[in-house]
Write a structure and sequence with these properties.
single chain; 141 residues; mainly beta; 1 helix; 7 strands; 26% strand
């Protein structure tokens, strides 16, 4: 047996096939970068039982399955440009990737159904000389 050539797959997994090409052999749920939505992670169900690497079963479940309640509520937002707003101002997000349940509007999320919600946030400061900033996530404020 003689092998030659190089396997072609993306550096960050964007499909179940990419995972299998990296050596993953167990079927199950995996976080995969969604190239159609700015590489945000989404859940995919991967069937690794096939005999080769070209036909790998994949069912994209999306972000909505992070919700534990009966209703599907999820949102992903970001700014496409550098935000340099005034102090004590509300951040206006100009890109909405997902808005299941229609709970997010420009700068405010209003829970469309009762339940427990989880929020994740990240920011980057590029200022110099002790520059800092504070972000407050307000409940009913």
């Amino acid at each position: 047996l003689k092998c030659s050539g190089e396997a072609a797959y993306s550096t960050s997994p964007q499909s179940c096939r990419d995972l299998k090409m990296r050596g993953e052999q167990k079927s199950g749920l995996y976080l995969i970068e969604d190239a159609e939505n700015n590489n945000f992670s989404m859940v995919s169900k991967c069937d690794m039982d096939g005999p080769d690497y070209n036909e790998v079963g994949e069912e994209k479940l999306g972000w909505q399955h992070f919700s534990t309640g009966p209703s599907r509520v999820s949102f992903v937002v970001w700014n496409s440009a550098i935000y340099d707003g005034p102090q004590n101002d509300t951040i206006q997000f100009d890109e909405i990737g997902v808005n299941l349940g229609k709970g997010f509007d420009t700068d405010t999320f209003t829970a469309p159904v009762n339940g427990v919600y989880e929020f994740s946030f990240s920011a980057l400061s590029t200022g110099e000389d002790g520059h800092h900033f504070t972000i407050d996530i307000m409940v009913n404020g």
